[in-house]
Write a structure and sequence with these properties.
This protein has seven helices and ten strands. With about 180 residues, the protein is α/β, with parallel strands linked by helices. It has two domains: about 1-20 and about 120-170, no CATH class; about 30-110, Rossmann fold.
């Protein structure tokens, strides 16, 4: 795999679609609704982050246990559950309301500074993104985008296509505010 700008692009070989991120050993998260923006931030940074919008703490904890996910929550009661307090399920109590501060807390507490793989997970459905040959997206993106961009990735679940346009630039500025820029250079 080679690093190309801000995307992690694999060697292309003979395949038109290749996953640009897949490492089952990486940390996975389940984000409680009370810290919901954190899920998109973690996805943006390349982490599997499932959003939990249910009200049942037992279901949240059960899902975290079954799927080997770290719970991220602002709910102090979750931290009191025996399975959590004994460390059978890892959970982090998020202290701040500000989503940027929350991201810094998670990165710091879990020492994820070297585990960031931005723009490798679909922001909408939390699935890995795949490199697409430019010719394969010609009729699926606006003509100007096709003419001006040469790197495309796609989520095979929702079929959303991403490229380095102005929206990407805006997300980069957000990342620069939260984490060290040189991690993505």
């Amino acid at each position: 795999m080679q690093v190309s700008g801000h995307f992690y692009i694999p060697d292309r070989g003979n395949h038109s679609k290749k996953e640009i991120y897949s490492n089952p050993g990486d940390m996975r998260f389940i984000v409680d609704a009370n810290a919901g923006k954190l899920a998109k931030w973690l996805r943006l940074l390349g982490h599997d982050a499932r959003f939990f919008d249910g009200a049942d703490d037992a279901e949240l904890i059960s899902t975290a246990l079954k799927e080997a996910r770290v719970i991220l929550t602002r709910d102090t009661h979750i931290m009191e559950w025996g399975i959590v307090s004994r460390g059978q399920v890892k959970a982090i109590l998020i202290h701040d309301d500000n989503d940027e501060v929350q991201v810094r807390q998670v990165i710091s507490e879990l020492k994820l500074e070297n585990e960031l793989k931005p723009f490798t997970i679909c922001l909408e459905c939390n699935e890995p993104l795949f490199h697409m040959d430019r010719a394969d997206v010609e009729h699926r993106v606006p003509p100007y985008v096709y003419q001006t961009q040469d790197q495309f990735v796609e989520c095979l679940k929702c079929h959303r296509i991403y490229w380095r346009g102005t929206h990407w630039q805006g997300m980069m500025k957000k990342l620069e505010r939260v984490v060290e820029v040189d991690r993505f250079q």
